[in-house]
What does this fold into?
Amino acid sequence: MKHALVTGGSGGIGAAICRRLAADGCHVYIHAHRSGQAAQTLAEAICADGGSAQVLAFDVTDASGVAAALAPLIEHQPIQILVNNAGIHDDAVFPGMRAEQWFRVIDVSLNGFFNVTQPLMMAMIRSRWGRIINVSSIAALTGNHGQVNYSAAKGALNSATKSLAREVASRGITVNAVAPGIIGTAMSADAFDAAEIARMVPMKRAGTPGEVADLVGFLASAQAAYITGQIISINGGII
It folds into this structure.
């Protein structure tokens, strides 16, 4: 049984990814920071359905705390599937953006990627098999009004994806990013109404967390062994 870690695993997209990986036979570590109860409820539901899951709590921006949480887990078996899904929005037009808005968004999405991924690499390399999937955003590809910080963080994540993919390809490890557009989660419900989605999206609807999870599940599978260094959009045809 392969071990998988999903950061931000209790949110809308993260939870769907956790369910998909568990259904595919992985033992899933559901990461949470402030949503521990939601993560625990999800873990219990996965186990009730016959899957294997447990909650893992840490702040992705705390490098020493992340390392302390992960080290015992990989002592005897590597985490071979990593989904870097943790991220936050703190939107403001750039002239009015506060420094803490800039640094916090960068810290979670980009520094969090480093803090979680780097400690797992050597064990994954020694196993000569791995899947790293970074959850990016359409904002990194097109830009978005009021999201200079978020676009910068996810754009850097895309570049890191491509470079890391080159470094570890010969070890049987793939590194890819998925870039969702408008996905039907609680977060997007506050940002887009049905009329706006119909205007923006050629498919005239928001995507579902399950559709994103299906893409992640494929990239995490043996069938995706020759796909690496790619930024794969899932946005209903917006771009």
User: Anything to note?
Assistant: The first strand starts at residue 3 and ends at 6.
